Amino acid sequence: MAGRKDQVAGPGNGRGCSCTALRKATRRISQLYDTALAPSGLKTTQRAILAQIGRSEPTTVGELAEALVMDSGALAHTLKPLGRDSLVAVAVDPGDRRNRLITLTRRGRAKLAETDVLWAKAQRGFEAALGRAESKALREVLRLLISDDFAAAFGNVQRASVR
User: Fold this and answer.
1) Dihedral-angle region of residue 31 (phi above 0 means left; psi in -120 to 50 means alpha; beta otherwise)
2) How many CB atoms are located within 10 Å of the residue 80 CB?
3) Cβ(11)–Cβ(17) under 8 Å?
4) Sign of the CA dihedral 132, 133, 134, 136?
5) pLDDT per residue over 153-162, tens digit each?
6) Is 70 left (phi over 0), alpha (psi -120 to 50) or beta?
7) Per-domain boundaries in the chain
């Protein structure tokens, strides 16, 4: 079935590129979760940011970007509408005036709580579609992929193959 939309593009025969497969899977899952969260007015990325701030506040853009495995510039861009909608507050860090401390506002906490039911329903849908054991195994693999150990091993292979 050449030309199927669900094939993974990559070098050679058009299959086998892990990066492309992961990016496509991430976009699809984000679309499904965004649909589930639509009644709240938040996107998946925004909810993830609010949840991480809630777990680590006060936090800086750099700390938040590291925790979310995001580029600081992209995160700063995504934070703007959350600030505009008064879901987060950004203040100067009294300990280091170069940093900005990010916290959830009362409205941000309420919005995050509002999404909890929608998020839980999306999680149940994911597990029902993929399977409970498979979902758990996938999360374990994903934890490995975002780890510093994996990044170091990947870098070591890259450096070794250049030699």
Assistant:
1) alpha
2) 11
3) yes
4) positive
5) 988 776 666 5
6) beta
7) 18-130
Q: How far apart are CA 132 and CA 136, in angstroms?
A: 6
Q: Say if residue 1's pLDDT is above 50.
A: no
Enumerate the β-bridge partners of residue 103: 89
54-to-2, 14, 160 alpha-carbon distances in Å: 47, 42, 41
Please state the rounded mean pLDDT for residues 10-24.
76
163/136 Cα distance (integer angstroms): 38
Please tell me the pTM assigned to this model: 0.81
Please classify residue 44 by burial: count the beta carbons closer than 10 Å to its beta carbon, then call 0-12 exposed, 13-18 middle and 19+ buried: buried
For the segment(s) 18-130, the CATH number from 3.40.50.1820, 2.60.40.10, 1.10.10.10, 3.40.50.300 is 1.10.10.10
Amino acid at 114: E
As a whole number of angstroms, the distance between CA 40 and CA 50 comes to 13
Q: What is the pLDDT of residue 163?
A: 53
* Mean pLDDT across the chain: 88
